[in-house]
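Tokens in:
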């Protein structure tokens, strides 16, 4: 495109995914008018080489295997709109995915505060559950929503508390962790649908510390 196009409204929603089926008429009409208009040399141009495929995680760690399998089963049900009906809310994602995952990572329930100071989930390294003892926070979005926008939201909450902590954003199935005070690039990522070898980095960063 010669320049960005302004739809003058949030046609992709507040938390747009990177890739999704689109039903919005303004987007469909814009896409069709451009793909059907010249120049069309791009239709036959050679595509760049794809990056190397990251190795699949050969085995989920034993202590996480049950939780990950349960979350995968739940996600398959969430994808079946005829069975599940309305898309589950953020609160349901926290209850059925995030908290069980944290539990499997070694955090006791008293380490995990839900809806703490506007933060969806705060994980504490020690009691009492005060700002100084907060180890990292999790900001959740509804199933299959874009999760990137949640990062700045969580950082604003931490700024109001005057603390800097690592941030995890998730839709219950995809998890990205950002280093404290740096929300530009994630430092670890895991997709529980299809875990790659690098998912081990995120698992280890989210695990309960031995002294916690």
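Residues out:
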């Amino acid at each position: 495109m010669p320049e960005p196009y302004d739809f003058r409204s949030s046609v992709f929603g507040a938390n747009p995914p990177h890739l999704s089926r689109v039903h919005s008429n303004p987007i469909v009409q814009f896409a069709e008018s451009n793909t059907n208009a010249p120049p069309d040399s791009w239709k036959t141009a050679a595509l760049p080489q794809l990056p190397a495929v990251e190795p699949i995680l050969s085995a989920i760690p034993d202590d996480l295997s049950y939780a990950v399998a349960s979350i995968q089963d739940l996600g398959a049900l969430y994808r079946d709109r005829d069975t599940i009906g309305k898309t589950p809310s953020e609160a349901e994602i926290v209850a059925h995915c995030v908290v069980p995952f944290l539990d499997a990572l070694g955090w006791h329930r008293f380490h995990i505060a839900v809806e703490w100071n506007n933060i969806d989930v705060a994980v504490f390294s020690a009691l009492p559950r005060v700002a100084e003892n907060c180890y990292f926070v999790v900001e959740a979005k509804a199933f299959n929503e874009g999760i990137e926008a949640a990062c700045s939201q969580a950082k604003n909450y931490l700024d109001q508390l005057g603390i800097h902590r690592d941030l995890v954003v998730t839709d219950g199935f995809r998890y990205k962790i950002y280093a404290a005070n740096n929300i530009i690039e994630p430092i670890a990522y895991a997709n529980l649908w299809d875990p790659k070898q690098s998912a081990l980095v995120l698992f280890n960063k989210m695990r309960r510390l031995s002294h916690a």
